[in-house]
Design brief:
Layout lengths: L4 E8 L2 E8 L2 E5 L1 E3 L12 H7 L4 E4 H6 L3 H6 L3 H5 L5 E4 L2 H6 L4 E4 L2 E5 L6 E4 L1 H11 L3 E3 L11 H21 L7 E6 L5 H14 L3 E4 L8 H11 L9 E3 L5 H8 L5 E3 L2 H7 L2 E4 L2 E4 L19 H5 L2 H9 L4 H26 L3 H14 L3
Parallel strand pairs: 4-14, 5-6, 6-10, 10-11, 11-12, 12-13, 13-14
Antiparallel strand pairs: 1-2, 2-3, 7-8, 8-9, 15-16
Length: 372
Amino acid sequence: MTTFSFTVRATDGAARLGKLHTAHGSAETPVFMPVGTAGTVKAMTADAVRATGAPIVLGNTYHLMLRPGAERVARLGGLHRMMDWPGPILTDSGGFQVMSLVKLRKLDADGVTFQSHLDGTTHRLTPARSVEIQHMLDATITMALDECTPFPATREETDRSLGLSMRWALHSKEAFRPRSGYALFGIVQGGVFADLRARSVRDLLAIGFEGYAIGGLAVGEGQEAMLAVLDGTVPLLPADRPRYLMGVGTPDDILRSVARGVDMFDCVIPTRGGRTARAYTSGGVLNLRNAKFADDPRPLDPACACPLCTRHARAYLHHLFRAEEMLGPMLLTWHNLAYYADLMRGIRAAIAGARLAAYADAVRRKWESADE
């Protein structure tokens, strides 16, 4: 049986080149994980996701517990079988949805009672229930239930929220059923307050987890504040465990966060962009709805080997979006995820060669100097 493990193979400053070993396969880090909220990466087949090179995908406890239901997923063989994804799956605990559904929920010390955004029915989510749902989904990496502190929030509000998250982290650990190759990650909270973040790390280390996530960022605080939190938090985390920055982010966010020692990322940006004609390329971000692309015969990104870039012109993609053909979002989502996967491969090679700073500078220069 494969045990869950994380090995750092090389470093470049604070940046780490690593490898995750799990019950469902391995993954090189730093890694970007496409978001498959409801058991699918939107507009993508599992084969297409695999073709981009992504080794891990995400599922979401909140959405899957409501539809189709965790018990049903378990009866049908688990999320891996349903999605046709034998590789690792990380499941968000539902904590972010607890924050986003503020008008539909009631928090207490032991969990949250909320109304479904689908049909208004009342549900109860506790740390134990969240972990149980993730177990039924057969998540490779389970996330502890937390409250994602909104921004802005006062120090008093953040302190209260942190206390709740740490209580729930302990209850999540107590509810988790250890299995070979599976893992439970704790989530660091504390808003933009350095001492609260440090306290959160201390509390989580005392509980003990296979990995540590940094949550509550990319919620409106801005990149400068986010990086300041990372500067104060990442060095406190154990060097022998993976570090996961939740919900981040843009390619530049990723470059700057990797340089600070982060190993794992997820974000809806590339898939959402794929559905809204927003393309991430080696030449920067392009809006394919713009009229200037109507007669553009060039590939979207000459540096990319995805099916869109090797077979179609920008003009065709522009046409697909203007005509509201579903192929447009499908092709562009594939491209955006391929771009992110290529970026991560470049980052890993740069760390291995101790040249991450030079690589990041070169990538940014291309964004700034490219002729659309």
